[in-house]
Amino acid sequence: MKQFLKDLILEAGKISLDYKARLSSLTVNRKSLKDLVTEADVAVEEFLVKQIKSRFPEHAVWGEETGSHAGGRYRWVIDPIDGTTSFVHEFPFYSVSIALEEEGKPILAAVYGPVLNELFMAEKGKGATLNNKPIHVSSRSVLSDCMLATGFACVRVDAKENNLPYFNKLLPLIRDIRRAGSAALDLSYVACGRFDGYWEMCLKPFDIAAGVLIVAEAGGIVTDFAGGTAGLPRQIIAANPAVHPQLLNLLKAST
Ligand code: IPD
Ligand code: CA
Ligand code: CA
């Protein structure tokens, strides 16, 4: 299953790069004012669904662009291009994200950043890797030494929750921040220690399905702003075990 997922996501990434090479001629539609979907999003997802369904016809699939495809106890959760805004603007930080759940719990995950050719994978109980090498969250604990990531629900113009108060609160306390535009990559970068922590609001299950397992298997902690998991993916905090309680305190106090 792991080798299948690896081959599958690398091929999907290659397809996205082929589309990226002719970006100016791609059809870009709007799901809403700022929420874009390109031909590439649809083509990558159709490829993934077809491959999964032909190899595992009894498995369910849930993709951002094509919805639910019925099946049994296993379900593949797909975000064909996480970071479509980055993709459209030729900003290199977008990814393909795939998680495999067994009875609703993630057991296998992959996030692939095609431009940098970086493949993050995790298997429940077996750790996380970047390009086949084991990864671990960072060990920084002092917030003023930490680089965090976040995101803003720019694409969801009707979102009720606003990240700016949290951003204003945290930014003065930390070393620096990045907003690269792919939640799946943000989580994967927490897993390999590039980011010491990450928070965001108003996400969808397919944004984080794979990244959450990758962080957990790399020794990190993922919760909502109340410290549980019931509020995911509406609220998410992912960080190393020293930073997570500090972010939780700061974000909890503001809610
Ligand atoms: C988006 C990315 C981004 C996050 C947005 C998501 P999409 O996913 O994960 O980092 O801030 O809220 O919608 O729409 O590009 O698949
Ligand atoms: Ca997404
Ligand atoms: Ca997407």
Write the layout of secondary structure elements.
Layout: H1 2-20, E1 28-30, E2 36-38, H2 39-55, E3 60-63, E4 67-69, E5 74-82, H3 84-88, E6 95-102, E7 105-113, E8 118-123, E9 128-130, E10 133-134, E11 147-150, H4 164-170, E12 176-178, H5 183-191, E13 197-201, H6 205-217, E14 221-223, E15 235-239, H7 244-254
Parallel strand pairs: 3-5, 11-12, 11-13
Antiparallel strand pairs: 1-2, 3-4, 5-6, 6-7, 7-8, 8-9, 9-10, 13-15, 14-15
Helix pairs in contact: 1-2, 4-7, 5-6
The chain binds D-MYO-inositol-1-phosphate and calcium ion (2 copies).
Short description:
This protein has 255 residues and is α+β, with helices and mostly antiparallel strands.
Supply database-style keywords:
255 residues; alpha+beta; Fructose-1,6-Bisphosphatase, Chain A, domain 1; 5-stranded mixed beta sheet; 7 helices; 32% helix; globular; binds D-MYO-inositol-1-phosphate; binds calcium ion
